[in-house]
């Protein structure tokens, strides 16, 4: 299934997981390869690579990845370490933590966007946000 390279690591170049239309998943997904979602996901998505959310896809949960192309619907927090590209057919509701952002005219984005420091995890971002709130309130 996977081929090991000379140094023992797994070569994932050119491999992409695909979840096709009319597929509904309830639960979290983790992948070490790119993933294209054209179905519906009720859960979190953590990918070491690129995530593509197709035009008919829906995600109700958090997404964490290196790069993302969003063409469908996402409701939740997104942590994208590098580039988040949002196309004209996309609708995003939630909080965005990104390295770089590209939005095509026509996209619907109802989100707070933080481009200051995307690298990390969603949980760590939440902890940092809470500590900032406490400091600003004098706690």
Automatic annotation (TrEMBL):
InterPro entries: BacA/B
Family matches, as Pfam families: Bactofilin
Protein family per UniProt: Belongs to the bactofilin family.
The name this protein goes by in its record: Protein CcmA, bactofilin family
Source organism (scientific name): Myroides phaeus
């Amino acid at each position: 299934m996977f081929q090991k390279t000379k140094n023992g690591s797994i070569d994932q170049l050119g491999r992409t997981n695909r979840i096709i239309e009319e597929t509904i998943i309830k639960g979290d997904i983790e992948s070490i390869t790119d993933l294209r979602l054209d179905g519906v996901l009720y859960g979190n998505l953590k990918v070491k690579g690129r995530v593509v959310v197709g035009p008919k896809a829906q995600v109700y949960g958090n997404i964490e990845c290196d790069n993302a192309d969003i063409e469908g619907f996402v409701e939740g927090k997104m942590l994208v370490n590098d580039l988040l590209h949002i196309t004209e057919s996309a609708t995003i509701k939630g909080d965005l933590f990104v390295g770089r952002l590209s939005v095509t005219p026509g996209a619907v984005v109802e989100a707070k966007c933080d481009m200051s420091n995307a690298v990390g995890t969603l949980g760590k971002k939440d902890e940092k946000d809470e500590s900032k709130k406490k400091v600003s309130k004098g706690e």
